[in-house]
Amino acid sequence: MRFFKSTRPDAELVSEALKSIADPATGTPVTEAGRIDQLLVTKEGDVTITLYGAPQTLERDERLRYEVEQAVGALKGVNSVRVMLTAHSETPAPSAGRQRVTKGADLAGQTASKPVPAVTAKSGTLQIPGIKQIIAVASAKGGVGKSTLSLNLAIALRDQGLRVGIMDADVYGPSLPTMTGTVESHPGKGDGGKITPVEAFGMKLMSIGYISDVDAPMIWRGPIVMSAITQMLKDVQWGELDVLIIDTPPGTGDAQLTLAQRVSLSGAVIVSTPQEVALADVRRGVAMFRKTDVPVLGIVENMAYFEDPVSQNRTYLFGEGGARRMAETLEVPFLGEVPLLQAIREGGDAGKPAALTEGTSSAVYADIAQQVRAGLEGVSVPEGPEIVFE
Asked: What phi and psi values does residue 131 have, to the nearest 5 degrees?
């Protein structure tokens, strides 16, 4: 028996509030319909809820997500609310016979051969108030150090007097919290239902890693991924920024293509390593941005060489000058070589980016940042409406 009521919400209190919301598919309370995949409540009053959804009922599920967000946000003691959609199967909502993902299950299922709803805009592109320029840092191949480049480039731009923000758009493998030492941080509650980003190193940060369980797999399809990315863009109170850097997922799939088509990008920076297997994908990345009319600011070659700290002899472990030659072939600027340095790796693991320290790495990033700024001269984000899903 409870003799007093705590002002701090718990999972039981949140679940009780959700009973008043009807599942649009079954008409039963959302808690009984099996819609709740994950419900987390921190001691600070931050609530994270993951709802089951489906690509073909995205619009209806988005309305349900909003209702859940409003109901939980009205509870006393709730500091912030994060409600995300996920889809583990084709059905829009779990029922008594719903199948859950099990070890060894075929995640593609029958929906793999069916087209997913397209992300369209009424006209123009998504423009975020207060942000002057948006840069996408991309790689058509994973494992080339794109996230490391994104963060250190952002710090270098900050050091040159710009107001900078970073959005980690890789919902499947968010790395920004670890690389900035902000794993335990949580976004706050801002004005008008928006959320305030995490702040570190004088920059504003947003990542799915701040609002999801670190051990929870993101089993999401394209439209659900874009819904999450759109929320992190337009539902965040970014404030006044000179530059927002979007660390895009690797590849040229739904998320990358939609960002290129629908977000008002001022330009894109392509990251590669010297070996041919990586350079082959650079062509596809550059082609995608060109087809979507996004200026390619240039190519950066990561892990270009190893320099012996004693003899200062350079060893080109992955080949020499591959990205530079590719830039010349594709007629785009070559922004520079980032050497293979232990300080860069250690800085990312420890949450202390290499660009913060004096030395070779910070000088390299500073030079790349200067060239990126030169490429942005005269480029600004055009006005445009918000993204809508149809």
From this structure: -105, 120
How is residue 81 written in tokens? 């609310």
Do residues 355 and 309 share a domain? yes
Question: Exposed (0-12), middle (13-18) or buried (19+): which is 44, by Cβ within 10 Å?
Answer: exposed
8 A C-beta contact, residue 326 and residue 333: no
- Cα dist. 49→14, 59, 241, 248, 291 in Å? 10, 18, 29, 24, 37
Please give the C-alpha separations between residue 151 and each of 156, 166, 243, 385, in angstroms, as whole numbers.
Answer: 9, 7, 13, 28
Token output for 195: 């959320």
Query: Are residues 150 and 293 both part of a single domain?
Result: yes
**Number of domains comprising the chain:** 2
CATH at 76? 3.30.300.130
Taking only the tens place, the pLDDT of each residue in 57-97 is: 767 787 888 888 888 888 888 888 878 776 544 333 443 33
Average pLDDT estimate for 183-187: 88
Range with lowest mean pLDDT among 261-275, 301-315, 371-385: 371-385
**Residues 306, 350 contacting (CB under 8 angstroms):** no
User: 49 with 185, same domain?
Assistant: no
Tokens 């297997």 belong to which residue?
277
Cα–Cα dist 314/334, whole Å? 20
Give the 3-state secondary structure of residue 142.
coil
Q: Quote the tokens at residue 127.
A: 């423009």
Distances (CA, A) of 386 to 127, 147, 231, 264: 7, 26, 11, 10
In a domain, 116, yes or no: no
Q: How far apart are CA 378 and CA 85, in angstroms?
A: 38
The proportion of the chain whose per-residue pLDDT surpasses 70, expressed as a percent, equals 77
**Quick count: other Cβ atoms within 10 Å of Cβ 155?**
24
Say how far apart CA 178 and CA 347 lie, in whole Å. Answer: 10
The answer to whether 85 and 224 have CB atoms below 8 angstroms apart is: yes
Give the per-residue pLDDT at 371.
Answer: 94
